[in-house]
Design a protein that fits this description.
Blueprint: H1 2-54, H2 57-70, H3 73-82, H4 85-115, H5 123-151, H6 154-181, H7 187-220
Helix pairs in contact: 1-2, 1-3, 1-5, 2-6, 3-4, 4-6, 4-7, 5-6, 6-7
Length: 221
C-alpha cells in the first residue's frame, strides 16, 4: 500500500513538473519577446528623433518598417501567453511573411533609387540612423534567437532571423550613405539589391525553420 501511494505521489510530482515547465516556457517566451520589443522600440524612437532633425524620406521608410517589425512580437507574445503550439506556428508563419515583406521593401527602395537617385543631403543623419537600426535589430535578433533555441520555439528563432534581416537593411542604409557621400551614387541601389537577395535567403531559411519546427512540434505534443 505504501509503495502504491509513493508511486502515485511520484506521478503527481511529474505532471506538476510539466505544467510548471509550460508556464515557465510561456513566461520566458514572453520575456524574450518583450525585451526584443523594448530594444526595437528604443531604436525606432532614436531614429524618429534623427528623422525629425533631418527630414529624410529614406529614413522615414526605414522607420515605418521598424515599427512594422515590432508588430511581429504581438502574435508571438500572444502565442506564448496562450501556451499554444498551434498559435506559435501561426505566429511563425506571420514572421516569415514579415521577412518577405522586408525583402520587398528593400527591393522596391533599390529600384526606386535606380530610377530616382538620392541626393546627398542628410547623408550623415542616414548613416547614424542606420548604425542605430543595425545595433537595435542585432541585439533584438540575439535575444530572440537565444530564447528560441532555449525554448525550442521555431517561431522565436524565425523572429530572430527577421530582426537579423532588418539589421542588414539598416547596414545597407549605412553603406548607401557612405557610397552617396563619396560620390559613388550607383553603388546605392546595387547595395539595396544585394541586401534584397540576402533577405530573400533568410525568408527561405526561416520558412524551413518554421515548417521543420512544425513537425518537431507535432512530434513533441
Amino acid at each position: 500500500m505504501t509503495a502504491h501511494t509513493h508511486h502515485h505521489e511520484h506521478a503527481h510530482g511529474h505532471s506538476h513538473g510539466l505544467v510548471h515547465d509550460s508556464i515557465k516556457r510561456s513566461r520566458e517566451g514572453i520575456r524574450a519577446v518583450a525585451l526584443a520589443l523594448l530594444v526595437l522600440g528604443v531604436t525606432a524612437l532614436a531614429q524618429t528623433v534623427i528623422f525629425v532633425a533631418s527630414g529624410s524620406v529614406a529614413l522615414l521608410a526605414d522607420l515605418i518598417h521598424n515599427f512594422g517589425d515590432a508588430a511581429t512580437a504581438i502574435p508571438l507574445g500572444i502565442a506564448f501567453a496562450l501556451r499554444s503550439a498551434h498559435a506559435e506556428r501561426w505566429a511563425g508563419l506571420f514572421v516569415v511573411l514579415a521577412i518577405f515583406v522586408s525583402a520587398c521593401v528593400a527591393g522596391y527602395e533599390a529600384i526606386d533609387r535606380l530610377i530616382n537617385p538620392r541626393d546627398v543631403e542628410h547623408v550623415a543623419a542616414l548613416a547614424v540612423a542606420g548604425v542605430l537600426g543595425f545595433a537595435g535589430n542585432w541585439i533584438a535578433a540575439l535575444i530572440r534567437t537565444r530564447a528560441g533555441h532555449r525554448l525550442d520555439s521555431s517561431a522565436l528563432v524565425a523572429d530572430g532571423a527577421h530582426a537579423r534581416a532588418d539589421a542588414y537593411v539598416s547596414l545597407a542604409v549605412v553603406a548607401s550613405a557612405i557610397a552617396v557621400a563619396i560620390g559613388f551614387q550607383v553603388a546605392d541601389p546595387l547595395i539595396g539589391l544585394a541586401i534584397t537577395v540576402v533577405i530573400l535567403r533568410i525568408t527561405v531559411e526561416s520558412w524551413r525553420t518554421v515548417r521543420g519546427g512544425n513537425h518537431h512540434g507535432d512530434h513533441h505534443h
